[in-house]
Design a protein that fits this description.
Two copies of one chain form a homodimer. By secondary structure, chain A is mainly alpha-helical. Chain A folds into two domains: 11-55, Homeodomain-like (Arc Repressor Mutant, subunit A, Orthogonal Bundle), CATH 1.10.10; 67-197, Orthogonal Bundle (Tetracycline Repressor, domain 2). In chain A, 66% of the residues lie in helices and 0% in strands. Chain A contains nine helices and no strands. In chain A, helix 1 crosses helix 4 (57-77) and helix 3 packs across helix 4. The longest helix of chain A is centred in the first third of the chain and has 21 residues, at 57-77. The relative contact order of chain A is 0.10. At the A-B interface, helix 1, helix 6, helix 8 and helix 9 of A face helix 1, helix 6, helix 8 and helix 9 of B. The structure holds a DNA duplex (18 and 18 nucleotides).
Chain lengths: 212, 212
DNA sequence: GTCTATATTGAGATAGAC
DNA sequence: GTCTATCTCAATATAGAC
């Protein structure tokens, strides 16, 4: 006996389509310069549909932000499983984030635009958290590396900022340039070169480990 | 015998006031979300005054961008005079830019918003040049440092990106946080620590020069 | 849920007096 | 050069039929 189609999530695709097109347009023209007219046209529906699902333009925007926030938390949550040397775990963290950034360029561009840009009339969103999580994680790993002898006693703060800064600039290359001048292999080499500089020295060796 | 007041630059202050208030508002709300109504109100004049001086909103925006571009060129031009070790010259370059950024926070915030953000209906402006000048300068200095023996043969690209990335993240702290967690002393320490890692080694020394 | 049609507001920009 | 008053258009948002 055939059952009726379940009434749950009746037209979830329309919601998704609206959000997807809105992301594209917000990235391209910004929140204020994107009209709901453009959004609904891109999604192939009419204005009242948008207002039906999201209440208003702000509601649509906030739903998008929520989704991004959850995506980020899931990404980071899936990274605490790594084990191995501190150097390896930092490299894994950085390349993991980089891979995710390359797979979600549009969303990441939106995040950067919101982080560095003005509110544009849109509700304020604090993305500092994203950055602070990375900063805190690297700081913890370095502390562990120093106490464990993998890294010599040095200026840990400077080390932390230089690593995170190098990582950030690689991410920024991915989203600001059509052909990034540095990416996955580059950040690995940077991490190695910086950490080689603060690695314990063997007695009579020439400098080893550069450009591994 | 009293002479008439000179007719040159009759009301240049009005122009300047409009541009200054526009910068503040563009930083605060973005180009699209700032109305000329708000701008002229902040400057204490009426709309036709703005249209008289700048033609339209875009014209005002472009004048601001032009001014910023010239400021940057002057800043960089005043930096090629430095001499000394490569390490010193990189430090001078970074701290010089940092000082200027701290003195012009509003303008720099605008630059970052334009660089990372969407056009918002404003004419496109390419600020990649700013960044590329810094990148090129550091790269040249490192090349000189390696050939001169101040820096050991190593991965120069990785070194360049790590230095510039570290510098960038310090700048970003200045404009994104009310109380930056790292600034002038921090970037000096970072440069020293990174360059210590690729400095020629004395024979039987313990590791020297960290955290100087 | 989705549409057509419309209400309402505020935007950029200008005419014309002084 | 600067004002008041006004034009024109596009934006957000909603009413009400289906």
């Amino acid at each position: 006996m055939p059952t009726k189609p379940l009434p749950i999530a009746p037209h979830d695709d329309v919601r998704q389509r609206l959000m997807q097109e809105a992301i594209t347009l917000f990235v391209e023209h910004g929140y204020a310069a994107t009209s709901v007219r453009q959004i609904v046209a891109a999604a192939g529906v009419t204005k009242p549909v948008m207002y039906y699902y999201f209440g208003n333009k702000e509601g649509l925007y906030l739903e998008i932000i929520n989704g991004i926030s959850q995506q980020f938390d899931q990404l980071i949550a899936g990274m605490y499983a790594t084990s191995g040397s501190v150097r390896q775990r930092i490299t894994d963290l950085f390349t993991g984030i980089l891979d995710s950034v390359q797979d979600n360029r549009a969303v990441v561009k939106l995040v950067y635009a919101i982080y560095f840009g003005p509110p544009q009339g849109a509700p304020f969103v604090d993305f500092n958290r994203f950055f602070d999580v990375i900063l805190g994680t690297v700081n913890d790993l370095l502390t562990e590396g120093i106490s464990g002898g993998e890294i010599i006693p040095c200026n840990r703060d400077a080390l932390c900022w230089s690593l995170v800064g190098s990582h950030q600039i690689v991410l920024e290359e991915q989203i600001c340039r059509t052909t990034p001048r540095i990416s996955r292999e580059g950040i690995i080499q940077i991490v190695n070169q910086i950490l080689d500089g603060v690695a314990p020295r063997t007695n009579n060796s020439t400098f080893e480990g550069v450009d591994r």
